[in-house]
Amino acid sequence: MSQQQGSSAPTVDFRLIRPKNYFANERTFISWLQLAVTMGGLGLALLNFGGDGIRVRISAFVFETGALGLIVYAYTMFWHRAERLRRGERGTWDDRFIPIVVVIFFIFATAVNFGLTFHKKAYTPPLDNLSVITMSWGSKAR
Is 59 exposed, middle or buried (0-12, 13-18, 19+ CB in 10 A)? Predict the structure, then answer.
């Protein structure tokens, strides 16, 4: 067998995307979503089992807002990293800032919850205004 003149070894395109990189991106996305579901579950547990009152609703709102923010962050980072994988970019893939922000947010939300729970002089609106604020479905006595 003679080798043809001008033929060369097959070239390797290093911009090919490795499946393990895509799966790592998806695992990271799912991890952030698990944390968001946990945070949202804490908010819902506070809302359903924390009793009545504006304090519980404020605490639940803080946790739910954090959960929604985390979902938005996870979604945008997943697509940003997927685009970087498609373009074959090299560089750092770690995120050093957001985990610190999430921990600080958990501390803040827990402090808000404890502060509103144990502070006895907090403002509590009258019950007739509370039904308007929380959009209750019950009929209001006139």
Answer: buried
* pLDDT at residue 12, rounded to an integer: 47
**Contact present, 70 and 35 (Cβ < 8 Å):** yes
DSSP string, 94-128: --SSHHHHHHHHHHHHHHHHHHHHH-TT-----HH
Instruction: Classify burial at 133, counting beta carbons within 10 Å of its beta carbon; exposed 0-12, middle 13-18, buried 19 or more.
Output: exposed
SS3 content of the chain, % helix, strand, coil (to 5): 65, 0, 35
pTM: 0.68
And the tokens for 74? 């996870």
**DSSP-derived secondary structure letter, 15:** T
